[in-house]
């Protein structure tokens, strides 16, 4: 009975950690001196984002999907997309790579090679420790809100997701995921 409870607890913990690894990491920051209550209209700053793929799994089409999702959400909150805007929106897409290495000090004899998503692998012959290296690539969708006159940044939100988030997703699924990401990003806009 205790073994079954422990197994369930381990399974739930593993599932929660997997979900946490794949959910977007959202960050926001803003200028507390800016009057967000005065915003009625907005416009887009053209050419603000990336026009190239930041990783093979993420394309400029994903940036267009993100801009479309942001537009729908901002309009749904009552802001008008009409120049000249009280604020200027600029969306962008970037990537970051993280490398991690670890040493297997258990030693032993043999040969091994591993491969998987984000895994560079290792080859090993003979005795001694083996060094393993893994690579993770993340896509960063960001949204800047600028004061139009000086193009001064007054709010920034970014959402970081692993590029595996896009693996084998058709365009409709990618749009659904990006819609959810944009909603989570804009949850705290305007700041209260």
Q: What's the shape?
A: elongated
- SS field, number of helical segments: 3
How far is it from the N-terminal to the C-terminal residue, by CA? 50 Å
Mind describing the biggest β-sheet? 6 strands, mixed
The chain-level mean pLDDT equals: 78
Strand residue percentage: 25-35%
Give the helix proportion (percent range).
25-40%
Low-confidence residue ranges = 9-21
Task: Kindly name the structural category.
Answer: alpha/beta
Strand runs, count: 6
Rg to the nearest angstrom? Answer: 22 Å
- Give the topology string: H per helix, E per strand: HEEHEEEEH
Q: Largest sheet, order of strands side by side? A: 1-6-5-4-2-3
From the structure above, extract its key features.
single chain, 192 residues, alpha/beta, six-stranded mixed sheet, 3 helices, 28% helix, 31% strand
Write structural notes for this entry:
- 28% of the residues lie in helices and 31% in strands.
- The chain is built from three helices and six strands, in the order H-E-E-H-E-E-E-E-H.
- It has helices spanning 2-22, 60-76, 171-185; strands at residues 25-30, 41-44, 80-81, 87-104, 130-147, 152-162.
- Helix 2 links the parallel strand 2 and strand 3.
- The termini are far apart.
